[in-house]
Amino acid sequence: MGWIITACILLFFVLLFSLSIAADVRYDGDFSLDVGILGWRYPVWPQEEKTEEKAPAKKAASGKPGRKKRKKAPPPPEKKPEDGDLKGTVGTVLDLFKALFPPLGKLLKKIRMTRLEAYILVGGEDAAQIAEDYGKICAVFYSSYAALQNIMKIKARRVDISCDFLLPKTREDISFTLKLRLGSILWAALCMGGRFLVYTIRRGREELPSAEIKNPPEATPSGIRK
Hints:
Layout (H helix, E strand, L loop, with lengths): L1 H17 L1 E8 L3 E7 L2 E6 L37 H27 L2 E11 L4 H23 L3 E11 L7 E11 H33 L12
Parallel strand pairs: 4-5
Antiparallel strand pairs: 1-2, 1-6, 2-3, 4-6
Helix pairs in contact: 2-4
């Protein structure tokens, strides 16, 4: 019976970490971003404007003499950071950057772009300018598309870039979905935390001998150190 429960727990975590967080991005003159999981989406941008409730008006102060307010004591002067604290802060920040970059780069490669749809219709008032804009848009779009293919997996549904000399201005409608598995996020977080811990311990060991040199043990009159 115990092995059945263990197998069910393992199966649950396998299914959980195989789920993907999805971000639906769309630009059709206005930018929109929805984030969610398993078909549920939460609008991140633009956010719905909440109606602010008006605070009740404060009552007018009565004419009765009240107690005098005590003057607040001036805040104590800020202490300047010591050299040791500054070096420790800089070292911690450097350790954090060292821990973040390699796992973060691997995590970015695991992002998948699906349901890519790009519909761009180039227009304008001048035919020569329309042709020039069309060339620029094609160069930027397809070069960006090729560069992204080297970083992540891309599945495109439709890509249509064309010209319309009767259109007064360019129209664009670009949408896609970015997906990333929960298991990949958890593994990257564990790698970052482990690397940061290793770098912190290593830096503490390197700083320990220098601290001992600055504060040598005191010697007794007989010449024997304490």
